[in-house]
Amino acid sequence: MAAPPRLSDQPDQRYMLREFYELYRRSSAGGSAQIRSHQRAVREAISRLLKGDPEIFERRPETKPAAAHLARAVDRGLGGYMAPMVRALNNITPGLTWLHGYDKMPAGLSRKFAYAELAGPHGPIISDELILGLVIFAPKCTYPAHAHQGLTESYYILSGAVSENDAGVSGIGSMIFNPPEHVHRITVDDSEPALLSYAWMGPPELLREQKMKFNRKKLIRGDV
Would the pLDDT of 133 be above 60? Predict the structure, then answer.
């Protein structure tokens, strides 16, 4: 029986991880000690992942309607500050498994949102320290209020523009930081899709068993 492939067998996956590392190394923390600590934790986890040469769990490629906006998002992202990251990610997109992750979704959201995990407990790059992934949003998408139990989350905007909790607008190169249990809602530009990378950090058992669900309480200014 053939041994499972490892990270060293798939150069494009290694290049992608290196771009994630550089993103969390060179990006500003805006003076926030909490964000700086998160960036360091993500970098250190990625470094251990690269050195450990983990197994690759080859998931079956799968698409979702929102992935139809990916080519446009990539095209726009290649002309911006995040071009090296977008280029590395574009090299692996043909084999991605796009998911929704929810048992129940608001009407219409299934056509405007999808995510693909790149590294984590369930692969394709096996890690129990962090989850890295991509999110694609169609224009005019509203991603309802939700929170992540026990996990720290960061997004980087690779293409497009979004607003979290109506608190300003984040464009290419911006970071959105969500500490554990922080309720957040995302809205997307009216005319262009948005492509975001994300990282989740937390205890291995929570990364492995995290349940995705929307928050039922109404988002108010005090949640921002």
Answer: yes
Helices (H), 27-179: 33-52, 70-77, 83-90
User: d(Cα 120, Cα 157) in Å, to the nearest integer?
Assistant: 20
Quote the CA–CA distance of 190 and 160 in Å, as a whole number: 10
| Residue ranges per structural domain of the chain | 58-223
Q: How many CB atoms lie within 10 A of CB 104?
A: 6
Burial 58-80, CB ≥16 within 10 A → b, else e: eeeeeebebbebbebbbebbeeb
Identify the CA nearest to 117 among candidates 102, 132, 129: 132
190 against 146, higher pLDDT: 190
* CA-based nearest residue to 133, from 211, 16, 8: 16
Q: Which CATH number is associated with domain 58-223? A: 2.60.120.10
Q: Which long-range contacts (CB under 8 A, 24 or more apart) does 119-122 make?
A: 119/17, 119/49, 120/200, 120/207, 121/204, 121/207, 121/208, 122/57, 122/208
Helix ranges restricted to H, the chain? 11-26, 33-52, 70-77, 83-90, 204-209
pLDDT at 218 over 60: no
The pLDDT value recorded for residue 122 is: 87
